[in-house]
Design goal:
By secondary structure, this protein is of the alpha/beta class. The protein is built from 16 helices and 13 strands. The strands form two sheets. It has a seven-stranded mixed beta sheet, covered by helices on one side. It has a six-stranded mixed beta sheet with strand order 8-9-10-11-12-13.
Length: about 425
């Protein structure tokens, strides 16, 4: 079964057989007809054959560039004419250096690199916060994947390629271009990022959607990253659907063929994002605090059951935080948290009332064993903050977060809880 048949089966039958059959970082190339190919990697590389050479959308991570180029060259020996960044996340731009190096080694013209005008500020910000980004991505993707988020094969603690390959041509809201007979309409949209381009190829009736479609619940709430834009994301999906594309080429997940099938998918994802924004804003306008919204707003299960909306990476609860931050700022409505006491001082006072840090730690274990994982984590945190060197408290904290990690569906939650588990395990 080829990847277009697989995606059709999943969408038509609302069938889910696991994330590993949808997002497959194999570096294998699939030809999709009419000089179009997709290479599955950490983020995919989509390529179009033109009279002037290959047009590539994205380059995947630096660690995947070798495999991507090997598969690409089995398909075509044509030089790379253009590299178009859908956006500046490192899993989309990290392989650009290897592709420029290949061209230089072959004596070919340097590929032109195209990106939105906000890609440059993004790369500049990554340099300013490189250590922070390395740490949060190491936590999110776990130690085994730390190298993949960097750019140095020797394992330097760096986030992204060194150096970043900046665009030669920056795009604003729209750009129509022609390369070797291929007409490409680049359009700007904000969603996961503020520097996102998606492309419409009218002759092929094809869309390169970048991360607007990922075959997981939209990454619009990542707790460790900058602002996302869920309502604008939904508007872009509706704009795509209005073009009635016959081929959808995402940067993660499976390509999709068939205008009715693509329309169904795009509009369903838009509906899920719009629901979360609508319900959150209604609660905010009624005076609700963030805490109330987080435990009240729930997406209908029928949407979460879609094979392309499973919360295996991001999840709806995290998106509620980003909606609040976008429309309401960082104050969550609880006056005690406007200018709070230090966590360790508050925890010490609570431990004093409870009879000591170990009382809190043991209660955390009891709560965890009874399935009250959210409460258990609060008590585990207070125990180690009240007595940071207490090995029994750290043992309890590690156990609580191990159970919590195993109970969570999303990679983001698993990463953060797993990081807490490892931190305390080191102190036992």
């Amino acid at each position: 079964m080829d990847i277009l048949q697989r995606s059709a089966r999943y969408i038509d039958e609302d069938l889910y057989e696991g994330a590993g059959l949808v997002n497959r970082p194999t570096t294998e190339l699939s030809e999709l007809g009419n000089g179009i190919a997709l290479i599955e990697a950490f983020s995919h590389v989509v390529t179009f054959r033109t009279d002037d050479g290959l047009v590539l959308f994205d380059t995947s991570l630096a660690a995947f560039a070798g495999g991507v180029l090997t598969s690409l060259r089995k398909w075509s020996s044509d030089p790379i004419a253009d590299i178009i960044y859908t956006h500046g996340h490192v899993d989309h731009v990290g392989g650009a250096g290897a592709m420029l190096a290949e061209a230089a080694g072959n004596g070919a013209r340097r590929p032109r690199v195209i990106g939105h005008e906000n890609v440059k500020p993004r790369f500049d910000r990554y340099e300013l916060t490189n250590g922070y980004n390395w740490l949060i991505n190491a936590r999110q993707f776990a130690p085994a994947n730390e190298l993949k988020m960097g750019g140095d094969p020797a394992g330097e603690r760096r986030f992204g390629p060194d150096p970043f390959v900046y665009p030669d041509l920056s795009v604003g809201e729209r750009l129509s271009m022609t390369t070797g007979g291929l007409n490409v309409e680049l359009r700007h949209g904000i969603g996961e990022t503020d520097d996102h381009l998606w492309a419409w190829m009218p002759e092929h009736k094809a869309i390169c959607s970048g991360d607007f479609v990922t075959w997981v619940f939209p990454n619009a709430g990542n707790p460790q990253k900058v602002q996302r834009y869920p309502l604008e994301w939904a508007r872009t999906l509706r704009e795509m659907a209005a073009l009635e594309p016959e081929l959808l080429l995402p940067a993660h997940g499976l390509p999709v063929a068939g205008s009715a099938r693509i329309r169904k998918m795009l509009l369903t994802i838009a509906e899920a994002l719009e629901f979360l924004v609508r319900e959150t804003l209604a609660a905010m306008n009624a005076g609700a605090r963030l805490d109330e919204i987080l435990h009240k707003v729930r997406l209908p299960a029928t949407l979460l059951e879609k094979p392309y909306l499973r919360p295996v990476y991001d999840e709806p609860e995290f998106i509620l935080h980003n909606i609040w931050r976008l429309y309401g700022g960082w104050y969550d409505g609880n006056p005690a948290r406007l200018k709070p006491a230090p966590d360790n001082e508050l925890s010490a006072e609570i431990a004093k009332l409870a009879g000591g840090a170990l009382t809190l730690a043991r209660h955390a274990l009891e709560l965890s064993q009874s399935g009250q994982h959210r409460l258990a984590c609060h008590f585990a945190e207070m125990a180690v903050q009240a007595d940071p060197e207490n090995r029994e408290a750290h043992s309890a904290r590690a156990q609580v977060y191990q159970v919590r990690r195993q109970s969570e569906p999303s990679l983001m939650a698993k990463g953060i809880f797993g990081g807490a588990e490892r931190d305390s395990a080191k102190k036992v």
